[in-house]
Amino acid sequence: AVADGLGLDIDVKNSQGVLVVNVGYETTEISILSLGRIVLSRLIKVGGMKFDDAIRAAVRREFSLIIGGKTAENVKIALKELEEESEVFKLPDGKYMIVTGLPVEREIPTRMVHESLEEHFNTIIDNVKVILERTPPELAADIYRHGIYLTGGASQVSHLAERLATGTGLHVNVAENPLTSVATGLAKIIKDDNYKT
Length: 197
Fold this sequence. Notes:
The chain has helices at about 1-5, 50-65, 70-85, 110-135, 135-145, 160-170, 180-190, and strands at about 20-25, 30-35, 35-45, 65, 90-95, 105-110, 150, 170-175. It is of the alpha/beta class. It is elongated, with a radius of gyration of 19 Å.
């Protein structure tokens, strides 16, 4: 979490409270940082993989169609672009109907994809609220002023940042390079003796 903060260009060594939410592939880590240390942290088993599984389950339920993890991931990644264009994701031939076992082509409405992700978004929001409730008042005041820092590969899913902002009432700062923020922060720690404990 400290490496994440550094990768986001946050001065983690000062006394202000910083809330970092890293939505990864298998987990989401919610951390409060201050004075270069983790004050509070919570790790939940919700991330990109759960998002993919939710999309696969929705497609199976609505269309009796089995799609693979890669296709579900492509739907998740393309979601924002699809909303701006046609409102549907076209599944190519090669995805199998459960009943017949034959490949078919289907159009998946973006609305259905959003609904399938909602439960997982709510889990993340609820856990952020739990961390905020346990945060010391002086650090909570800083977080209220600066907002949440959102990073991690799965943080790019369409509407997650907006839902997090609405659900917590806080401004959400989205990482410019969410996939590499930890690696960038680790590089800073390695190069700078001030960050070594």
